[in-house]
Amino acid sequence: MDQLLTYPEFPHLLSILIFLPLIGIVPLLFSANDSFSRYWTLIITAVVALLSVRLIFGFDTSTAKFQFAESYTWVESLNIHYQVGMDGISILLFLLTTFIMPFCVLASWSYIKKRTRTFMICLLVMETSMLGVFVALDFVLFYILWEAMLIPMYLLIGIWGGPRKIYASIKFFLYTLAGSVLLLVAIIWLYQNNDSSFFIPDMMWQGYAFTAQILLFLAFFLAFAIKVPMFPFHTWLPAAHVEAPTAGSVILASVLLKMGTYGFLRFALPITPDAAIYLAQPVLWLSIAGIIYGGFTALAQNDMKKLIAYSSVGHMGFVTLGIFVFNLQGVEGAILQMINHGVTTGALFLCVGMIYERTHSRELLSATGVGKYMPVFVTFLAFFSLSSFGFPGTNSFVGEFMILAGAFQFDTDLGKFPYLALAAIPGAILAAAYMLRMLQKVIWGGTNNPDQSWQTDLNAREIVTLAPFLFFVFWIGLDAKVFINMMHTSVAALLDNLHIHQQQALTAADLILR
Amino acid sequence: MTTSFFHPALIMIIGACLLPFFRDPFRKPFLVLVPLLTFINVLYLSMHPGTYGVLPFLDWDLTFGRVDNYSMLFGFIMALMAIIGTIYGLHVNNVWHHVAAWFYVAGSLGVIYCGDFLVLFLFWEMMAFASTFLIWFNKEEGSLAAGYRYLLVHTFGGVLLLLGFVLRYQALGDLSFVHMGEESTQMYTWLILAGLMLNAAVPPLHSWLPDAYSKATAAGAVFMCAFTTKTAVYTLVRGFAGFEILIVLGVVMAIYGIVYAIMENDIRRLLGWEIVSQVGYMAAGVGIGTALAINGACAHAFAHILYKGLLFMGAGAIIHATGVSKFTGLGGLYKKMPNTMIFMIIGGISVSAFPFFSGFVTKSMIIAASFSEHYLVVAFLLTLVSAGTFLVAGLRLPYLLFFSENRCSETTFAKAEDPPWNMQAAMIIASFFCLLIGSYLPFLYDMLPHAEVAFHPYGTYHLSETLQILAFTALAFYFFHKKIGPEAVISLDLDWFYRKGGLLFLWLAKYPIQIADNAWGAAYRVVGLNSLMTTAKFWSWFDWHGIDGVVDGSARCVRAFGRRIATVLQRGQIQMTIYYTATFAAVILIAYVWL
Question: CB–CB of B536 and A296 under 8 A?
Fold first, then answer.
């Protein structure tokens, strides 16, 4: 347990943050008032967001240990514990989640007209399980929260979704559940080979047998690749995004997708390092395929939500690319890009939601030419689009640049021509193509624009919803150091351990060859 | 770093951003207030030398505030000139004119206080773009084209500079703006030098200056004559002191400029040529590079800003009143514009180095430095040029404007009158400083970067020499003034290439490049865009029917299979159910026994 650091100044901070939303459900159970449930949920999520800022001040960037740790016995006979703690990899994702949630409530303010109370309960349950996933250090706890997330999300899509909501929600549920079944098998195997303990840090860097590692890795990979989603396991995403309500899309894009890549960093790399190194090339090329493929399919879409959904496939391809090049630039860029994607894509979904509330259509053609009548809206949209395709000065530029630099270094370190970085670059160009195509149509359109003169520009609530996202777009874009410093020590420790394994593997291969 | 640092350029920028929100009667006080605050800030900084405003950006530490002997002197004069120029332009109603001018000043101050090349480049470009507007705001015919030429040339200079910075960074991994050794010159040194020289109007990169300054607005030209070239001189002093090539170029500049100034027919073109000539002195001083020479270059830049500003203000007053800028349409104005005449004569005798006026105590430093370093030819030629300067600015200019026969048309002469109070006030301030510098030596000399070098201009030898030169020049003018009267011709020089270069650029852009671009555009549309969209459509189709088909298809298979089993196995007949159960049990039993 020496990997855990408690936080005596505020010992239960993490648990309070995790369970506050769940406790916040209680008043909602007794009130049928829609307006109350909106305000109450907003207050709860805002309090969690503000309280989570405390983490930044208590976080020690000089250690790779798990901080703010708490540990209690849960099921004694099976040695299951309630153990939580965060390191540099999870803190930013945790903060991203707490930050996103109040805006999800704001985005649903007038969007959700039926069963508002139930909707808000779903959001709060969602928040608890998402926050828990990012800090769980006990594998059973992790798995329970991981699966628990599916239920509120299923309801969000299935009840408040679009015309094909049943199809989309069942597809989402089954697809992700199918992926994580093997994860459970892997957990049980690890439990048996790890002195009957579910404590995740104990499973790391154990040097399990190579075959076992390969099998474990494949189990992890299936679960996480579906969640990311990596090509070709991505088709649940456009379906779910298109049908989900705005808040659901934002949560999906900003947080749920990150759990896959977070899983790679937290489990796949430390628990099965040799397999990860062995299978890196195929994963890298799947990432490249995702980047290019996501770009092309996004370009062909006329449904704005689908367009952004496919663009997520491309962007998350960049993230997995960064993770599996196993160098500092790549991994740090990948974590930064997770945050960037959460901010930018979340904001883009919010924008589309705002258009949808006005036109009741997500079709590009029905939103053409609104620029003239909604100048504030298109200004926001333009900035987020620029950010989405990595325009210099915005957040994604820094992330993508670091990842590409990492990919470049990966090949040059191996003494090869930098195929990877070169192969990823068309993806960046495609991103500009599909984003600008959307932007051009929405702002100007053509001569056949529908009459948009009745459109009203954003109201104060909507501006308040979007403005913080814009702030982060430029903050990360202009001064990413702050964010990178928070993750640096943990990432460096992860890579150090990984490189030790890489070295051992190389020596072993050398011995066999002789 | 105990003192608080607020960048003077930031005051100007914030002021410029706020200015459009001020309406009369608050605008005029605000216009004076902002440069005044900047000036006070500069004075404050001068009392606290050090390095401030270091901001980390990506992997670099950018330095915005390097306050030392050099930047204090230049910051002082630039901020002073900002006040004078703004007062001179108070009557201008176009608020964007002031905004452009202030951004221009901010660019100059930014360059002066910067500590590295990245910041320098940022402010350098800010200067170029902001000043272009001062030309464009002039409604005169040809201003638009002149502005474009100016912008084109300065963009080219900026590219040279950037190229130099990047190459230097690659070679040294260092961005800091420090002195560059002449012994270890590289490609990048020359690129940077060329970029800076372009702004200092060193031949053959000088043609933009008379062209642009003569087409700027009356108030804009006052700013332009002060900031661009002198900021460039500052950067040369910082980076290239002791580069001997600058001596040669400086002397060439000094002679070249004055020769063209003698032949010029447009007031502001004449003054523009004279800037070239005077900056030549400074360039030569930088090239000599000794403490005295550097002092001289700095002091001369300081004095030059004031008297050349004064002359441009006088020229602006005449153009403002009459709308005529050619000598062939002016003359005999002493009756109508007596105050302007006095100010212009003060400017003229300051530039001609009359005792007790500013040029006398600054120009002689450079000449003295070239003597003491045994550059005798240089010293001789520069002395010769000072005779020419007196001829041009001290005698020819006032003579043609105020005293010679009246060549004005009747309407012009009727319109001529002394300018509004604010222009006169600005000229009074500038005249005062011209006199102050020349009469009270410690004012300027105490600010010079190399305080250890003493220089005494009021020696007998220097005084008598100057008076001789002035007297003989005046005598020559008396005999020959008919010969150098105004002629309505354009004196051609490298300017021709400059103008034709612009046309060539336009032609290239219009014909070969446009044709190639059209073809490329067509190819892009037909081959690139269409095939891209077709590919995209295909992959989108494939995604739904291929990949998702497998997913949904397998789901459908499972469902169909389940239904099939249900229909086959659960028909509801009890015998069938028992039969299936017994069979299934038998299969399991056999499997268990046999396997």
Answer: yes
Residues of B in contact with A301 (CB under 8 A): 540
Is residue B533 within 8 angstroms of chain A, CB to CB? yes
Residue in B107, B85, B101, B97 with CA at minimum distance from that of residue B32: B85
8 Å CB contact of B543 and A171: no
User: What type of residue sits at position A429?
Assistant: I
CA distance A125 to A312: 25
> Helices A88-107 and A116-135 sit at what angle, rounded to 10 degrees?
170
Q: Model ipTM?
A: 0.77
Q: Please answer whether residues A235 and A312 qualify as being in contact, where contact means their C-beta atoms are separated by less than 8 angstroms.
A: no
CA distances B575 to B432, B489, B569, B578, B582, Å, are 123, 121, 11, 5, 11
One digit per residue, the tens of pLDDT, for chain A of length 514 reads 578 888 888 888 899 999 999 999 999 888 888 889 999 999 999 999 999 999 998 888 888 889 999 989 888 888 899 999 999 999 999 999 999 999 999 988 888 888 889 999 999 999 999 999 999 999 999 999 999 999 999 999 999 988 888 999 998 998 888 888 889 999 999 998 888 888 888 888 888 888 888 999 999 999 999 998 888 888 888 889 989 999 999 999 999 999 999 999 999 999 998 888 888 889 999 999 999 999 989 988 888 899 999 999 999 999 999 999 988 989 999 999 999 999 999 999 999 999 888 888 888 888 888 888 888 898 999 999 999 988 888 899 899 999 999 988 888 888 888 888 888 888 888 888 888 888 888 888 777 777 777 788 888 889 999 999 999 999 998 888 889 999 999 999 999 988 888 787 777 766 666 6
The residues near A293 (Cβ < 8 Å, ≥ 6 apart) are: A231, A313, A314, B539, B543
Residues of B in contact with A296 (CB under 8 A): 535-536, 539-540
Angle between helices B338-351 and B421-439 (to 10 degrees): 30
Q: How many C-beta neighbours within 10 Å does residue B194 have?
A: 17
Contact A430, A295 (CB under 8 A): yes
- pTM listed for this prediction: 0.62
For residue A164, the cross-strand partners are none
Quick one: which of A503, A469, A507, A465 has its CA closest to A384? Answer: A469
Q: For residues B340 and B418, is the Cβ–Cβ distance under 8 A?
A: yes
Dist CA B102 CA B82 (whole Å)? 8
- Written as six digits, the tokens of B495 are 């300017």
If one counts every other C-beta atom within 10 angstroms of the C-beta of residue B490, the result is 13
Residues in A closer than 8 angstroms to B543, CB to CB, are: 235, 238, 293, 297
Kindly state the tokens that stand for B66: 């390097």
CB under 8 Å to B210, separation ≥6 — which residues? B260, B264, B268, B269, B272, B273, B276, B495
Q: Which residues contact A392 (CB under 8 A, 6 or more apart)?
A: A477
Q: Are the Cβ atoms of A300 and B532 closer than 8 angstroms?
A: no
User: What is the C-alpha R_g of chain A?
Assistant: 22
